[in-house]
Write a structure and sequence with these properties.
single chain, 281 residues, alpha+beta, Gyrase A, domain 2, 2 domains, five-stranded antiparallel beta sheet, 6 helices, disordered N terminus, cytoplasm, metal-binding, metal ion binding, transcription
Length: 281
């Protein structure tokens, strides 16, 4: 568990916020935030989705396309193909708006070429990049199908962008949080085993030997209150802990989820610094 003690923002002491990572793999991370406020957690969610920079194909110059697929559909598929966008890969690339070039150049973009003749299916692995570190995340995404002697030739230009401008630049496929569930029992009432049977996720387990209802995997509770509605005597109550949250980030593989989280927190810190500076002026 990672504990952020004595959090400071511009020298001012903040709250003791705790972060505990529950699950983490290549494309997904789930963690618990304790002693935080809804505006802070929601700000991290929104920035992770909308303001973390990512690389995606923006311009497609089609030289030849003999397939049955329209050029616009092919360009759309290329735009939504995940491109490696981790910090190491895109370091040094400029935003298109901040580059001095007229359209695109190696300083603000990465070019891909595709030249295939049918018959066969053209996959994302067939895209050839000018930068060996920047390529399609997955090799087996089908782009189009070519019949005998049909040819496709094109150049695709990937640029850095933000999810607030287009979905193809969203680094997250899932970015959500919920308040930490809280299940309590009224010990003055008779044990109502029916509420355990009503739980759709199997979180409640009736133990008639000990005359209790046990709670299993509380964090999986969706707070649907099916158990509460099934209880005839008000034996159970379902609520939440107001300052504790379960946060989940899932990516399409273009960026590790922890990088998305750290970058979102960095951007939020910069925004806070600007606001503090503005208010002091």
């Amino acid at each position: 568990m990672m504990v952020l003690d004595d959090l400071e923002v511009n020298g001012e002491e903040g709250s003791n916020m705790e972060i505990e990572v529950k699950n983490k793999d290549e494309n997904e991370i789930t963690f618990i935030i304790r002693d935080a406020e809804v505006p802070l957690v929601n700000a991290i969610r929104r920035i992770a989705m909308m303001e973390v920079p990512k690389l995606a194909i923006e311009d497609v110059n089609i030289v030849q396309n003999d397939s049955a697929m329209f050029n616009e559909v092919l360009a759309h598929r290329l735009g939504l193909t995940p491109i490696v966008s981790d910090i190491a890969a895109i370091e040094g690339l400029n935003l298109a708006d901040e580059c001095d070039c007229e359209d695109y150049c190696p300083s603000c973009s990465v070019s891909f070429t595709l030249n295939k003749t049918g018959p066969g299916i053209v996959y994302s692995k067939d895209l050839s990049s000018t930068d060996s570190t920047i390529k399609s995340v997955y090799d087996t995404i089908p782009l189009l199908k070519l019949k005998n002697d049909e040819n496709v030739e094109l150049e695709a230009v990937a640029k850095i962008g933000f999810g607030k401008d287009h979905a193809k630049w969203m680094p997250t496929t899932v970015c959500s949080y919920k308040q930490y569930p809280k299940i309590t029992f009224n010990e003055d009432k008779e044990v109502d085993y029916g509420c355990a049977e009503a739980c759709p996720r199997g979180i409640l387990k009736a133990d008639k030997r000990s005359k209790k209802i046990k709670v299993q995997n509380l964090e999986n509770c969706s707070m649907c209150k099916s158990c509460f509605r099934a209880s005839e005597n008000g034996y159970i109550d379902v609520g939440f802990e107001p300052n504790n949250f379960i946060f989940r980030i899932e990516t399409d593989g273009a960026m590790p989820p922890e990088e998305v989280l750290l970058k979102a927190c960095e951007i939020l810190g910069e925004k806070a610094d600007k606001f503090i500076k503005f208010s002091k002026e």
